[in-house]
Amino acid sequence: MKTFSLPTHPLRSAADLDAVLTAIGDARIVLLGEASHGTHEYYTWRTALSKRLIQEKGFQFIAVEGDWPDCFEVNCAIKQDKADYGSAAQLLQTFNRWPTWMWGNWEIAALIDWLHQHNQQRPLAERIGFYGLDVYSLWESLQEILQFVSKQGDGAVAAAHKAFQCFEPYGDDPQEYAQHVAFVSDDCEDEVTHMLQSLRRQLRNTTAPTGLERETNFAAEQNALVAVNAERYYRAMISGGSASWNVRDGHMMETLTRLLDLHGPDSKAIIWEHNTHIGDARYTDMARDNTVNIGQLARQMYGREQVFAVGFGSYQGSVIAGKRWGAPFEVMPVPRATNGSWEDLLHDQLKGENALLLSSELKGTPAQKQTFKHRAIGVVYRPEFEQFGNYVPSLMSERYDAFLFIDQTQALHPLLTQVAEHTPPDMFPWTE
Length: 432
Hints:
Blueprint: E1 9-10, H1 18-24, E2 29-32, H2 40-57, E3 61-64, H3 68-78, H4 88-91, H5 106-119, E4 129-132, H6 138-152, H7 157-167, H8 174-181, H9 189-204, H10 211-237, H11 243-263, E5 269-272, H12 275-278, H13 294-302, E6 307-321, E7 330-334, H14 342-350, E8 355-358, E9 372-375, E10 391-394, H15 396-399, E11 402-409
Parallel strand pairs: 2-5, 2-6, 3-4, 3-5, 6-11
Antiparallel strand pairs: 1-8, 6-7, 8-11, 9-10
Helix pairs in contact: 6-7, 6-10, 7-9, 8-10, 9-10, 10-11
């Protein structure tokens, strides 16, 4: 496997991203991955590329693998004229669901500061947004809906209260709800569906909003959609298999489509998620289980020329993760990549240097049709067992459109956030 070399571009500074900017061209959606949720360099390089996409190619928002209510709070804050939220670090305390470090870290704080400063130079309607794509925030989204409809008067109020009351016996623990519906026929599917329908009717019958009011109404409907899909997700979770994963990534794709529609026909989106979400699932072993992801769904919906996926990976270093679901985070070693893996091949060729690869330049090389083991580290990680479950067989030339390889990486820098009592259930420890 080490008998051939691959065409690469040096990767030392943000200026070296010229090649990937050129390759992105006029793509409408740029998906930026990561091989772990706890690596400093993945966040800083995604930030560098995102800044250039915003400044040079007119991208209007960043959407991340985070909960809608928390991210929308950040979105509203960075669009304000004055930073009345205090510091970015204070603002990011809103991310109190385990794993808090994914978005509550100093690397994201630096991005938030930049976005707020950048937005001050733009008209309110053109300010860059920051949104969450995920589906975990069932209880938080229900609470947001109740607050919204209580200010609107009649209409969706009764439906929202009925949905809230349906989940109330389970407190704020969706996992308890999932365990309950596994043994009895009672569930809350009808209640959350009716709530979404009622809210949509109410919003259609109101005067067409503009500016911030339009985005506030959008957020209310999005919270109702989160409740519908979260109920489906937690119910599917009990069945196992790919069902809950597909509900989750289907929700992410639906949210992305809604955000693009909100921002207009010429809108452009930057997505930050794990490689396992943004790298086309059809070119991994996920396809054997009929597992899909947002990378696949975006290509299918918008066309491959409109979607550009950038994978990330490294050879060795350190990472922030927990030894089990819900455990305190730790700085853990990332051992040398296993022999014969994609990361091992690049380390061997590049002799410790970082590099950018473009899939279009892999044509005619052995890598064009060869499947490689490709490392994936999740928020749950045990380095001593890495070889048994942290590598995803991937046709790299098709899974991504570009790949950023950082030979030696270090753990990111978490904020010290108080963790909320309940966390989403542990479904895929190698990614989540």
